[in-house]
Fold this sequence. Notes:
By secondary structure, the protein is an alpha+beta fold. The chain has a domain at about 160-295. It is built from 13 helices and nine strands. Helix 9 (about 210-235) runs antiparallel to helix 11. It is elongated, with a radius of gyration of 34 Å. The protein starts with 7 loop residues before the first strand and ends in a 17-residue tail after the last strand.
Amino acid sequence: MSPETLSVQKVTGVTAPLVCFANGSISEACKKQLRVSVYEESKQTLKGRKRKIVMAESQRQTYKASNFDNVDSKCDDTDLYLAETDLLTESFGSGKQKKALARRQQIRLKDSVIKSAISSVVDSAVAAQELSSSSSALPATTSAIPPYNIDARTPAEVYKLDDIIGQAELQSLRNVAEVFFQCNSQIVAEWQTNNTYFSSVLSRLSNLPFNETARWESACCLMYLQFMMTLFQMKAAQMQKKDPLPADWPDLVTNLMLNRFTFKSDTAKSRRCLPARLKDLLLSHILVLCLILDRFTTDLELLQVDLKIGPNKLQTHVKSLGCKVKKEASSGSFTAILTVPLVFPEAKKSKKVRL
């Protein structure tokens, strides 16, 4: 098929409203050497308009501008033209044209899925690389267990609530925790249906004390438990955001969690990450807060489901906090019990290999 040729004629007395050079600006000396001309097609198009072309000529080079038109700024929008053509084909096209349109749409969909998948894999790989490098940069003294009292005589003396969340941060949660303070059984049932909060949090709302001061403290602790479990479930790619935690969280709590449980990498982006050791520390704080709320006897079944942790790993972590694990004969679920004197499991000694 031979290319279409256009018959053009030079137009005098016509100026271009705007001329922009794609490869930078033209110096004043070169501007004086340019001869700018406007050409238009000698015959009109089907829409009754004449296309105009701007030519800028110098001694060494000729610049040909893209078509411009004051009537319709979308006349050269290829994507819009294709979309309108597809709509016409879908409504008035033949069977063969509709099949071709369906194939094109499937190809576009596959291309977009492949591009998004590749982008996700690349982001995950970069995040994993930063995570591994950040883990090695943590101090060796970073412990995965909150502060404890080895000489405690009662379970209440082992772990202190102030070491999990300070009073200032606890008070800052009153506004967001008011929904827990004011809730009733009907509202809790609605939250369970809509999965508004973690099951481990909802199951403890029925045990809120009636005393106003104690009820406020428990409501704020449960909201902090919700926040910690939300952070525990975050993926590495989510932590790469500039502000990974929700904006409606109190600033004091957000800063506490970021400084305590995340690590700021030294890469060019300087994004936060959650290394394995700090994630273990976060899990320890979750378990200790549950023990405090449950008077040091906690059912592990809902925590296992909410945190998506295997039973063996969760039981091992609970034992590292000084708890004993008991299996209920009736339900088969496991219960963590904090007892005193505090005893931590000893590290297994490696067997000697005979040569």
